[in-house]
Amino acid sequence: MKKHSRKKHWHVSWRTAAGGAVLCFLFGSALLFALFVYYAGELPRPESFGEVSLAQSTRIYDRTGEILLYEVYGEVKREVYPMSEFPGYLKEAIISAEDAKFYHHFGIDPAGILRATFVNLKSGSLAAGGSTISQQLVRNSLLTRNKSIERKMRELFLTLEMERKYSKDQILELFLNQIPFGSNAYGVGAASNLYFHKKPSELTLSESAALAAMMPAPSYYSPFGSHQDALLERKDYVLRRMRDEGYITTEEMKAAQAEEIAFAQAGQNIRAPHFSLMVLDELLNEYGDNYLRENGLKVITTLDWNLQEAAEKTISDLADQNKALGAHNAALAAVDPNTGEILVMVGSRDWFGNSEPAGCTSGLSCLFDPKVNVATSLPGRQPGSAFKPFVYATAFKKGFDDNTVVIDEETNFGVWGDQEYIPRNYDGTFRGPVTLRQALAQSLNIPSIKVLLDFAGIQDSIDTARAMGITTLQDAFAYGPSLVLGGGEVRLLDMTSAYGVFAAGGKRIPPYSIKRIESSDGRVLKETRKTPIVVLDPKVAEMITSILSDNAARIPVFIENSSLNIPGVAAKTGTTQESKDAWVMGYTKNISVGVWVGNSDAEPANENPSVILGGPIWNRFMRSAVELRGLTP
Question: Could you give all domains of the chain from N- to C-terminal order, each with its CATH number?
């Protein structure tokens, strides 16, 4: 009887269990379906990935389109790259570190979820994730990061839908362009430029592993923070994972672990800062701030990065020498006289202000203001005798030539302003009869004033300078005879461009900084095309060039091997009263270069002439330019 009851008991239990299993399956399926219906109504569609237009940074490049100068971004710094631009070991590093089974699961890794669940139950929190790359993409792009059961259910359902709609490579490409890397950088493209100043395709194996190592905690592992050692340790871990997954050999792993990584410096992600910010101002005027921060323009500028580096290094190397002579600031500009392209712009000795405290906001005397762009700022600076060639050119236009003779002697030019004007030459001596070639080459003041008043005329000289690109001059009554000695304020960029007219045989193209602007999809939105205009008789330009490159005619005032002496290169100095401004201008047929040296507050530089203050900078840079660009004087 007991056996019968026991047998009946087991028979009932089996039937009940089988029925229960069926009911549980049906109930579970119904529950899952109900949950899906409940959440699906508020889920974003996976098609959103294909439709969304990601906000992209506007990027300003040098003339090659390869060297990034500056990036304009809003809350998100991003540049989208196609899958083909990501090197294989970068993708392998991220897969090894984040989701080794990426190409083998259906969007969800059950084993990973079980491990995360165990950890969460043990810790009493929802800290552990176990998320796949697909889940991370959904979470970062379409959902909040709130850790809740409800959000997790939405994530799971949407991940399954996304995996159904997109291929693995499409999902990985979306992930690589959207994952956050800290410092407002989203996507591998922004991160590689921010931390290495490279495109993704240029990353080494070790650098790729470092980016993959940052992903779990970008702020903690940031190269700009205080945990760089931890980042490098995790980088080595990523390399081990790559080896274990069969992506690299042990030898490749060890070589990459031993490689020293050169991270970019925090806060200095701008090259040629004065130039780049000038370009930015132009873009803001044309497109507006919001458009630049969201639409991913690619701006190809005229800047020659190799020349820019040479200019910055030259000024930096000679800074201490000039400070000892009382001049704390310097600027340099260079243009191509045949195209108008601005090749170089160094607006101050050190834009970052690292070399010494500026002190310019304290109300105290400011010898060095790093942020002011001396090349373009207004009001301008007095050019001293660097203005003389425009006056002589005006005289030559009227039929005088380099053999015309004037008398260098003490002269009272009458009352100008409220006193008699009796100037002197720089060295205090008089030379008697001199030709205009000698007068200009030796920068003699008294003969030059006679050329202005007797041959050229004040207003006509101003008109010549304006036609050649000097934009800041007023009318004749503002200057008097001091015009030829640099009494009118000018800008360094204008002077450099105007001297380029002599270099180009009388033709002028206004200076410009942007060659081409492209949309994020590669369409050309704007391309600069300028036609030269003849503003000076070619014979006059040739005569000025002949005089300014005549070292023999220059020798009586400048020593034979002065810093102005580069065979075949034209050069002219300009020094204002008490050496407040020191200029050296010069050119070949392919480049025009202007150098200014002085103090930001116009404090005198110890009565040192421009050939001493600016000459060494001009000479070294001009020689570098001839070498780097293959120029012939």
Answer: 86-258 (1.10.3810.10), 309-628 (3.40.710.10)
